[in-house]
């Protein structure tokens, strides 16, 4: 699963990758900076700790993102 989010205070979007088949879990910004996580729960916890719905251009995307990651975790 790859999910793009646009932040309010940044012109860059973030790409969130949850690839359970290849064990790749990361957040990458357009400038290629980002974070790599060992597990989907670690990625999910980081997002919940560091982002709020109001940080995003479209706040409703926050819940969609959390839901999508949780679904990926359940599916594999």
Number of helices: 2
Q: State the strand order across the main sheet.
A: 1-2-3-4
Profile the largest sheet: 4 strands, antiparallel
SSE series: EEEEHH
The first-to-last residue Cα distance is: 12 Å
Protein name: Threonine dehydratase
Organism: Alkalihalobacillus alcalophilus ATCC 27647 = CGMCC 1.3604
Can you give me a brief rundown of this structure?
The protein has 76 residues and is α+β, with helices and mostly antiparallel strands. The protein has two helices and four strands; from the N terminus they run E-E-E-E-H-H. Helices cover 36% and strands 29% of the residues.
What does this structure look like?
The protein has 76 residues and is of the alpha+beta class. The chain has one domain (2-75). It is 36% helix and 29% strand. The protein has 2 helices and 4 strands, in the order E-E-E-E-H-H. The protein has helices at 40-50, 60-75; strands at residues 2-6, 13-19, 24-29, 34-37. The chain has a 4-stranded antiparallel β-sheet. Strand 3 (24-29) and strand 4 form a beta hairpin. Helix 1 runs antiparallel to helix 2 (60-75). The radius of gyration is 12 Å and the shape is globular.
């Amino acid at each position: 699963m790859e999910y793009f989010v646009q932040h309010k205070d940044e012109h860059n979007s973030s790409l969130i990758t949850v690839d359970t088949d290849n064990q790749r879990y990361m957040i990458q910004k357009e400038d290629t900076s980002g974070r790599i996580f060992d597990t989907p729960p670690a990625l999910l916890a980081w997002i919940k700790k560091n982002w709020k719905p109001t940080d995003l251009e479209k706040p409703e995307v926050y819940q969609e993102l959390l839901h999508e990651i949780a679904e990926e975790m359940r599916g594999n």
